[in-house]
Design a protein that fits this description.
The protein is of the alpha/beta class and about 160 residues long. Helix content is about 40%, strand content about 25%. β6 and β7 form a beta hairpin. The longest helix has 30 residues.
Amino acid sequence: MGKISYYTEEGLNRLKAELNDLKTKGRAEIARQIAEARDKGDLSENAEYDAAKDAQGLHELKISKLEEVLANARILDESTIDSSQVSVLSNVKIKNKKNGAVMNYTLVSEEEADLKSGRISVSSPIGKGLLGKRVGDVAEIKVPAGMMEFEIVDISR
């Protein structure tokens, strides 16, 4: 059994759509490539055919891994999450104690993380350091650049 991962409904739907796309369009495209390569003659010396078969194997591996992720995926119910402390799906406003910079992040599962849109993973160093903290707490977090201190300014959903 794989590791259980928690997703927002939006994130889970995105994974299901990706799997559907891989199974339909992706498989059809690889089948077309294999047929095209097969039409070019002797299969024993056909590098294009071998490459297409290798691509098919990798594609099927990707499908099986995504199916496993989906089998172990759970949707987070935001109504049951304690909003008095930082947890998964919390919107957190933090202030860097050293330079006074204020940042807003949403803590999400590793697969849904996207720093550009302000979504950080709960398994990242900053995500781990913020979990369980309350407004006013100071989190000392070890990051690759050294130790950083962040004050929790606000927590919301």
